[in-house]
Write a structure and sequence with these properties.
Number of strands: 17
CATH topology of the largest domain: Alpha-Beta Plaits
CATH architecture of the largest domain: 2-Layer Sandwich
Organism: Fusicatenibacter saccharivorans
Mean pLDDT: 82
Largest sheet: 6 strands, mixed
CATH superfamily of the largest domain: Reverse transcriptase/Diguanylate cyclase domain
Structural class: alpha/beta
Radius of gyration: 26 Å
Protein name: Transcriptional regulator
Helix content: 40-55%
Number of helices: 16
Shape: globular
């Protein structure tokens, strides 16, 4: 297998040292530049040179090049993990004699850094993240440098973490404490194995690959209680992760994440059409992302000859969904054609109830049949007996039905001792 790597000298040296030690038989071609925009040119050269996969050394050059490349070669980037952050904190202690409680960072996952601080005993630390800039802006690196500089002089940042070479050089030249984030050996090897897997899988699934990309975000700008805001973020993130991984499990698909906000589901085209779109998994995720005005969610679906091609087109469809402010989500058949995802209204309503009631489609059908046999009028004891569940479980289901305005109390019946039982009309 032949892999192309593009990035700064610092990170390419790290990758080269790791791969020569751990995977000496792997053929690797390096294209080095401290300008993240060079990644686009380097990747184009790699594609002409018939590499089997491309590794971008960070999310910045990856996302900059992603929209401009044909997805005929699998590519990935090196994400940062807790080991990267711990290494940076250790370097801070050695170089600057401090363990910082306020950190200015590039576009890393805030929760990753915050969690790492908490693990080393800094429970009240602050993480200032540069979310406002985009790698597609011409002044992106200058904006990042200004962001770190301002945080250091005005927002109490003790140190700046960056993987942008020019930003690191500029801040260091001004005497601003700065650490250049590196990547762990495990992450490097993990991404190489990922590319090898994609190459092997592509030969078996040509023309049938499909991918879903899901991006969700939060908008708690008006929240003054920072601890409550962070708790809500984590709570929503965990719910979304559980929902997506459960959907992938039911589909027999693979799910993985890029950071805390982007998820992929990888499957085949027939399974994706049948299970994700027609059987309501899409609507469950969409409804969950629209539960409150604080949550924002976009979905893109891509089809391709290879898993990586489908993944790339899913990202293109997602970008199209974000750009379309109508709230529509899209499918990308190729790099230029986008089709809005549409589902019939009955499926929408059913998917919504399945999600809100926390039941499967088979349980939902059984519930409908039981209610039909009782002319929609039933007690909790009758419902429990007919469904083969405890009365406590039946009462929990009834409570959720009440929250959806499906239950009307039309009378009560006394069974002797204890409180009278309600007679309810339940309409789905």
């Amino acid at each position: 297998m032949k892999i192309g790597v593009t990035g700064s000298d610092h990170i390419c040296d790290r990758i080269q040292k790791t791969l020569e030690k751990r995977m000496p038989d792997l053929e690797v071609v390096y294209r080095r530049s401290n300008d993240y925009r060079y990644g686009l040119e380097a990747a184009a050269q790699f594609q002409k040179g018939k590499v089997s996969g491309i590794i971008f050394t960070g999310p910045t050059n990856y996302h900059y090049a992603l929209k401009r490349l044909e997805p005929n070669v699998p590519w990935t980037f090196l994400p940062h993990n807790q080991a990267s952050i711990l290494k940076a904190l250790a370097e801070s202690a050695v170089r600057y004699s401090c363990v910082p409680d306020v950190i200015s960072i590039d576009m890393y996952e805030e929760q990753l850094v915050q969690g790492t601080l908490e693990e080393i005993g800094i429970s009240n630390g602050r993480v200032l993240v540069a979310h406002g800039s985009s790698p597609n802006q011409g002044d992106f690196q200058d904006a990042l440098t200004d962001f770190h500089r301002y945080n250091y002089f005005h927002n109490g940042a003790k140190i700046c973490f960056t993987n942008m070479e020019k930003t690191y050089e500029a801040l260091s030249a001004e005497g601003i404490p700065c650490i250049r984030i590196s990547v762990s050996e495990d992450v490097i090897l993990e991404q190489v194995y990922h590319l090898q897997f994609l190459e092997n899988t592509a030969q078996k699934n040509r023309g049938q690959s499909a991918s879903v990309q899901i991006y969700f975000d939060y908008s708690f700008d008006q929240e003054t209680d920072l601890s409550l805001r962070e708790w809500e973020k984590v709570h929503y993130q965990n719910e979304m992760r559980e929902l997506i991984y459960s959907a992938a499990h039911r589909m027999g698909a693979a799910a993985f994440s890029e950071g805390a906000s982007i998820f992929y589901i990888m499957s085949s085209r027939p399974v994706l059409m049948r299970e994700f779109i027609q059987n309501g998994e899409y609507q469950k995720i969409l409804f969950h992302g629209q539960q409150t005005p604080h949550n924002r969610l976009w979905i893109g679906i891509g089809y391709g000859d290879t898993p990586m091609g489908a993944k790339s087109r899913a990202a293109m469809a997602l970008n199209h969904s974000i750009a379309d402010r109508s709230g529509a989500n899209y499918i990308a058949e190729d790099e230029h054609q986008f089709t809005e995802i549409k589902i019939n209204d009955p499926t929408d309503h059913t998917a919504y109830l399945l999600h809100r009631l926390h039941i499967s489609s088979s349980t939902y059908e059984k519930l409908k049949e039981i209610l039909r046999s009782h002319d929609q009028v039933i007690t909790s004891a009758q419902l429990a007996a007919d469904m083969g569940i405890t009365e406590r479980s039946a009462n929990r289901l009834i409570l959720r039905l009440e929250q959806e305005n499906c239950v009307t109390t039309i009378g009560k019946i006394s069974g002797g001792r204890g409180r009278p039982a309600r007679i309810m009309k339940i309409t789905l």
